[in-house]
Design goal:
By secondary structure, the protein is of the alpha+beta class. The chain has helices at about 5-15, 155-165, 170-180, 195; strands spanning about 60-65, 75-85, 90-95, 100-105, 110, 115-120, 125, 135, 140-150, 185-190. It has one domain (about 5-25, about 55-195): Jelly Rolls, CATH 2.60.120.10.
């Protein structure tokens, strides 16, 4: 088994991307920002996150939250991810927020609504709410910044997910519980490198 396949399997075991077909809760219980917004600007160091955000522990995948929902009165949140080659996220939808990506380094293949696009530094992708999408990193240390609008405290989804992953408490029931609180639906598996490096669909 190749190293890329081994790494991908390890990631999938502890990742939201590894599970398919997570149902949306009949009644959403989205977290609302609970603190007052910042009227003054602020600075976040490279590699750092805003307060209370739990980061992911894997050396092959990292994520930080740079701007929280509470900082913008729920208008948007901003996060940054770095992923090694073969790290992938399964097919999923965000039902209450538009999502956008700006590639900082490396390269990715994104798929939305069945159409695949290879993206590199400086390129941007917008994914409207409710649109099925997934991605895979094609190079080590590929990175992007991404955000949601309105944010609906969606950074809380990633923080809760990382907390469960880091403590070894991730399970199908735990994943369903976290996803349902933020109106996220997971529809299928991630792309493979073989699929991503084939001719675009």
């Amino acid at each position: 088994m190749s190293e890329s396949v081994k790494d991908r399997r390890k990631f999938l075991v502890g990742s939201v991307a590894s599970f398919a077909c997570l149902p949306l809760a009949a009644q959403s219980t989205l977290h609302a920002p609970s603190a007052a917004p910042h009227n003054d600007g602020f600075h976040v160091d490279a590699g750092a996150s805003r307060p209370d955000f739990v980061t992911h522990a894997s050396p092959k995948f990292s994520e930080q939250c740079k701007i929280r929902s509470v900082d913008t009165e729920n208008r948007f949140c901003l996060l940054e991810q770095t992923a090694d080659r073969g790290i992938a996220v399964g097919l999923h939808r965000h039902m209450t927020a538009d999502e956008w990506f700006f590639i900082v380094g490396g390269s990715f293949v994104f798929e939305q609504s069945g159409q695949r696009t290879k993206l590199g530094p400086g390129e941007t992708l917008l994914i409207p709410r409710g649109t099925a999408h997934r991605w895979i990193s094609l190079e080590d240390k590929s990175a992007y910044v991404f955000g949601f609008s309105p944010s609906n405290n969606l950074e809380g989804f990633f923080s809760e997910l990382h907390k469960a992953q880091n403590s070894g408490q991730m399970s199908m029931s735990k994943l369903k519980e976290i996803a349902a609180r933020y109106d996220n639906i997971f529809d299928g598996p991630p792309l493979t490198l073989e699929e991503a490096e084939a001719q675009p669909s």
